[in-house]
Amino acid sequence: MFSEHTSSEGPVYLTSSVLPAVHAFSTRLGGISRNGFETFNISVHRGDEPDAVRENYRRWCTLFSSGVDDCCVTDQVHGNYIQTVTSKDKHACLANISTGADGLVTGEKHLPIFCFTADCVPVLLYDLEGHAAGAVHCGWRSSAADILNNAVTAMQSLGAIPQNICAALGPSIGSCCFETDQDVPDALNAYLHGDSKGLWVKREDGKYMVDLRKANARRLLQLGLLAEHIDLSDACTMCHPDKFWSARYTFRHHQVRGSMVAGIML
Ligand SMILES: [Zn+2]
Question: What is the residue range of 38's domain?
Fold first, then answer.
């Protein structure tokens, strides 16, 4: 189950009851950005003021008792590469990075790892024995390229076993709004080895309404996670553009868009 909190520093964020570790999913509330980026935006690449983004990021990092230069962040390239990081891989705040990694895994304590989304599914992973944590950006391309398999495998390399891994799938575009052509269901059906019943509806006009969160949850079950260790947010980013960043909503309405962040720490 997800619950909402407001940080004493401002950010409004969500947590999941299945993750007994410091973690959070941001909203677009509780920052200082302006000019269409109101108010909590964490992306510096889309025209927001760097000073505002830095202050938002500072507020965010206080949730992890961390400084802004003491975290590891993903790249967003819609691939399936998972980077296993240590404190040697920390990024300076707002640095341009090009690791090609849509997901991070770490076995190091007190090292916050963050991924960024605006409709794609943010997946936070945690091993109940504390060997490893993960933060993964799952768009449909990364999902179909089986990035979650790579993440679980990387966590196993650090000593975790799938039955002990918990997963929270945060706010993202819901099946109410994720309209696609046939390529998306076809790709998801292939990566789920045909176990895709109930994950999409075909409309009369030939388009599909796809539940990407449930597709990823089903893949995690296939990978050996237990159903009681998987938690899905029911929040659709596109249905709630005042609360969440949605790439599709902002594109459709010719608005600038920011990014949300999800993070976890051992
Ligand atoms: Zn929706």
Answer: 2-172+232-265
Residue 96 has pLDDT above 90, yes or no: no
Average pLDDT over residues 123-139: 97
Work out the average pLDDT over 145-164: 98
**Residue position matching structure tokens 């076993």:** 161
Distance 245 CA to ligand 1 centre (A): 12
Q: Are 9 and 61 in contact (CB under 8 A)?
A: no
* pTM score, whole prediction: 0.97
- Return the beta strands (E) in 118-178 as ranges: 121-127, 133-138, 165-169
Give 192 Cα–ligand 1 centroid separation in angstroms: 23
Distance from Cα 266 to the centre of ligand 1, integer Å? 32
Domain count of the chain? 1
Residues forming beta bridges with residue 104, ordered by sequence position: 83, 135
209-266: pLDDT as tens digits: 999 999 999 999 999 999 999 999 999 999 999 999 999 999 999 999 999 999 999 9
Spacing of C-alpha 73 from chain mean position: 11
| CATH number for the domain harbouring residue 8 | 3.60.140.10
- In contact, 168 and 24? CB cutoff 8 Å: no
**Structure-block tokens of residue 159:** 């000593």
Give the Å distance between the CA of 202 and the centre of ligand 1. 16
Which 8-state DSSP code applies to residue 118? S
